[in-house]
Design a protein that fits this description.
With 136 residues, the chain is mainly alpha-helical. The protein contains 5 helices and 2 strands; from the N terminus they run ββααααα. α2 crosses α5 and α3 packs across α5.
Length: 136
Amino acid sequence: MENPYVEMRYTLADGKRVCLKVSIEVKNLIEHTDRRNRSQQRQERRRHMEYVDGLTDTTTTLPQEDFADLVIKMDSYKQLYAAIATLSEIQWCRIYLHYFKDYTYRQIAELENVHFKTVARSIERALTKMRTLMPM
């Protein structure tokens, strides 16, 4: 049986070296991020040279995340998805409509033919449940 993990050696931004076992998908994502970072660095050097030469005005861009930031973000998403998976379908739908589709409690209540306070309590319970499952 094929091993789904590969060993990857990586140097962090502070110079420390780490060795991790990651899935093929994560390895590909890391390599893609590294290529994107190198490309952005080249573009920033070009913009800087153009600015220095007085040819164009330059805009600043935010620096790309390093590998450690990417791993932390992936872990946070994993915890978020696990917390969302514990919600009932009704709670999930209400959270989605309120936070991602910008519906008000009253609009959601009208869609579901319930009182808006029912929607408010349901969303608050869902958030409380998710907070207990996601250490900050």
